[in-house]
């Protein structure tokens, strides 16, 4: 496979199923190269880290969207994401991110430990002997946790789950018109829901993230508040579902490693980092250069270059990880780029890690006979990689 074919394969369903051989070809071709459509691809761990941390490398923000998609505000799913911190540059990003980080604290995440463990144990106990792991566990756990964090009532969880799933289509460059229409509807419904919740919490604050962000002194505009509440819901939902599904599959494929984790749950942090590295739930992120960049070794980027940063490819870079295609939780210094890097580094990373660190040992100990009961089905997506369905028997 040459580099052209490797690149083309990422845009076809068969290639996406296992993108790692194509990534190897692209990385060997160059750390940075320009595709026929004019955009640039970044393939190595070092360059990914370097570019994500460069202040002159920006995300496409609402002003950029105005330039290439004048009607974007009409799709409320798109608007929620574009108006959120994810698609905002300094100085607004710095202000909004600081506000969100001040309320989404380590203390608040740590306080969720018992909620997560209880929810996970309840879901495991409720599993029938043969079931789909994604719908029985990997989907409901993150949504329950995010709803608890935001202060969304338990009775609204199912409703939320569908809207959040519909809205994630806007994070994909390959969504269909129908998916984009559903994302618009979900965006409108979620905005209305949060408008109601914000009003309630402004009258009677509770110990939740919505109350903290909606407090008068938060410094967020109404539109920023709304967009970032929607972002918190969707950013942490399918990504964490994918981590749980992918992680379980990897553990079941490596039974000796699974036995070690079952015997010693203290190994969970290293296992979760290696799962994140081995098969990243987010495979790709985009940036723009705001000025020409000289990156050394003859690599230069012009101003205005569109970057496709292949996070999943960087995580398997042999220059950073020896024998990168081997699942090895004992490898030293695992620092995957699965949560991004720099100013937009995932705000929910501690929460996602905690959910996974609790879930995997619990699954393995409560269900020692857990096994695959058929071939799992991958979601056909380029950015968010994970299973749509994973038949299991609980032993
Ligand atoms: C395994 C689970 C997760 C993965 C792999 C993941 C991945 C990422 C990545 C790669 C980014 C950066 C995107 C970029 O730089 O373009 C990001 C940003 C973000 N994530 Fe996560 N995420 C996960 C879970 C969560 C959770 C649980 C939450 C919150 C409840 C969350 C909230 C956010 C937010 C708010 C941002 C935007 C940060 C900013 O723009 O400053 N994520 N995430």
Automatic annotation (TrEMBL):
Annotated keywords: Heme, Iron, Metal-binding, Monooxygenase, Oxidoreductase
Gene3D superfamilies in the record: Cytochrome P450
Pfam families referenced in this protein's UniProt entry, alphabetically: p450
Keyword Lyase included in the entry's annotation: no
PROSITE patterns associated with the record: CYTOCHROME_P450
Keyword Heme in record: yes
Entry protein name: Cytochrome P450
Organism of this sequence: Actinoplanes sandaracinus
């Amino acid at each position: 496979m040459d580099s052209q074919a490797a690149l083309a394969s990422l845009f076809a369903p068969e290639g996406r199923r296992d993108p790692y051989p194509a990534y190897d070809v692209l990385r060997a071709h160059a750390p940075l190269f320009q595709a026929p459509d004019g955009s640039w691809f970044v393939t190595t761990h070092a360059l990914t880290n370097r570019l994500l941390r460069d202040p002159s490398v920006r995300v496409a923000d609402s002003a950029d969207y105005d330039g290439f998609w004048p009607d974007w505000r009409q799709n409320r799913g798109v608007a929620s994401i574009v108006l959120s911190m994810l698609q905002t540059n300094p100085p607004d990003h710095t202000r909004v991110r600081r506000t969100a980080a001040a309320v989404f604290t380590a203390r608040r995440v740590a306080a969720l430990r018992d909620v997560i463990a209880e929810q996970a144990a309840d879901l495991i106990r409720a599993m029938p002997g043969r079931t789909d792991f994604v719908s029985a566990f990997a989907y409901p756990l993150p949504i329950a946790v995010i709803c608890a964090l935001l202060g969304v009532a338990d009775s609204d969880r199912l409703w939320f789950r569908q809207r959040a799933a519909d809205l994630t289509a806007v994070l994909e460059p390959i969504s269909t018109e129908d998916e984009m229409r559903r994302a618009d509807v979900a965006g409108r419904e979620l905005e209305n829901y949060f408008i109601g919740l914000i009003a309630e919490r402004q009258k009677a604050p509770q110990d939740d993230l919505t109350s903290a962000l909606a407090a008068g002194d938060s410094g967020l505009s109404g539109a920023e508040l709304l967009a970032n509440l929607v972002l918190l819901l969707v950013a942490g939902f399918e990504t964490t579902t994918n981590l749980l599904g992918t992680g379980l599959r990897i553990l079941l494929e490596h039974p000796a490693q699974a036995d070690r984790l079952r015997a010693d749950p203290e190994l969970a942090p290293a296992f979760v980092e290696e799962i994140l590295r081995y098969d990243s739930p987010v495979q790709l992120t985009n940036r723009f250069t705001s000025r020409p960049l000289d990156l050394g070794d003859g690599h230069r980027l012009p101003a205005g270059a569109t970057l496709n940063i292949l996070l999943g490819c960087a995580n398997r870079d042999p220059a950073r990880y020896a024998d990168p295609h081997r699942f090895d939780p004992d490898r030293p210094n695992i620092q995957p780029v699965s949560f991004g890097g720099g100013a937009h580094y995932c705000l929910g990373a501690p929460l996602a890690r905690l959910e996974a660190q609790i879930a995997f040992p619990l699954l393995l100990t409560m269900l020692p006979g857990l096994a695959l009961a058929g071939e799992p089905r991958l979601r056909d997506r380029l950015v968010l990689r994970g299973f749509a369905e994973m038949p299991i028997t609980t032993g």
